[in-house]
Amino acid sequence: MINNFEFSNPVKISFGKGSIARLSALVPAESNILIIYGGGSIKKNGIYNQVLDALKGFDISEFSGIEANPHYETCMKAVELVKQRHINFLLAVGGGSVIDATKFIAVSALFEGDPWNILAKGSPVVKALPVGVVLTLPATGSEMNERAVISRVSTKEKLNFSTPFVFPKFSILDPEVTYSLPLRQVANGVVDSFIHVVEQYLTYPVNAKVQDAFAEGLMKVIHDEGLRVLDNPHDYDIRANLMWAATNALNVWIGQGVPQDWSSHRMGYALTAQFGLDHAQTLAVLLPGVMTYMFKEKQIKLARMGEVVYHITNGSEEERAHQTIAATEAFFRRMGLKTHLSEYGITINDLDALAAPIDKLGWKLGEHHNIDTRAAKEIMMLRL
Q: Is the pLDDT of residue 353 over 90?
């Protein structure tokens, strides 16, 4: 049975070729804009010039240098610039990390007190600067959701927050801008978006036929097009399907009213914070471990996932569920990602520190809230 829920997603999407040119119609008149981006690749691939051309006549400032896992310390520098220049609109031009950072900057600039408390203590957010997005890397779904993840270098912590105040006012999705992405980023985006769907789907049956059908369709599209894009990086249709699937994978639609997991994500935060692994790299390692450790609880949905995504139809339900785990790991490896901690130089001696944040933050992970520090260590043991 689907649980009661309330649902709102106010993000306006402008999708397709040449859609960056619509920026001037989407940004409110009289906006004093801060353009926020990462390492400068947008200047090499032409996106930066497209954005500036579209925003002629607006007051514009820039802030660059957002990291692949955005740093709290960097965000605070941007907040200072926002206050100095009386910025009233933030435009994220980049992938999920840039968007997440922009969301945190948007709430921090108007927050009374230490902004880290939004992440560490769940301090309530009551307002934020408006945010717009030009998406360059489909992966996180941050362009159409209300959440963000931020790392603090000084304490080696990676934490998330969510508030409806950071739903972007609009997001521009032009699949052509993804043509120039390095293969590693493309593969990371495919795996990240795939696992976003898995986290909301792979729990236990609740007769949520609409959400299950949406999720199964998304997993199938991301899997199939993810493999195809490796050999056809300039195929517009493939890029368009991947971009739209990644957005729908985490725009709060498919998770409404159904149990969700997210243990792979939460455990993965420590791998990023302490060892610098890409977000998708952590997920590719941990998800097969969660599938194995929680096998009995997830067996029915595992077997169904195998049928839909991997065409696994032979054997008993239990056998098909085991085959699904193997097929999922094989998919990650075909996308070029490693699937074991030892492949990153992580040993059994590191597991205590990796599991420690679960106790520190009081997390009870998984759809049954039964993955504690001990269980997390046992899952990681399976992935050495």
A: yes
